[in-house]
Amino acid sequence: MNVEQIIKTEKKIPLRSRTIIHLLLVNTKITEIMTLALKPFGVSQQQFNVLRILRGQQGKPANLSTLNERMVTKMSNTTRLVDKLLAKGFVNRAVCPSNRRKIEILITPTGLDALLEMDKAISNAEKKVLKKMSNTELEQFNSLLDKF
Fold first, then answer.
1. 78: nearest Cα among 92, 57, 63, 98
2. Contact between 103 and 69 (Cβ < 8 Å)
3. Per-residue pLDDT reduced to its tens digit, 23-49
4. Which backbone phi and psi does 103 adopt, to 5 degrees?
């Protein structure tokens, strides 16, 4: 990906600025591919992330603060995400018996089944995004990203 070509400039961009622009462009491309992979399921990347977190709870309920803490993209509208998943039948929501102010959220069998299909689509999207990189390059890249 040539940054200067993409943003249509002939001027040499300073290295630090070029790096940030490059990361933003790559993020945009990855987001497009992942969003497209999830489109047939009618869920956003954030909703997919909530479902994966709930599956990881292994049958134990999660509350909104747990979801917020574990989200890849931190956001304040987790309630809205859960509402949309509830409407699709992918999650159940109930009041915690020991603390009536706390809401417990569980993934449903329908949600688990849908998530298995989404996993396949996301795996294919990840392969598409990373097809030009070897495992060694991915290790190196992750090492560099860890420095952030």
1. 63
2. no
3. 999 999 999 999 999 999 999 999 999
4. -105, 130
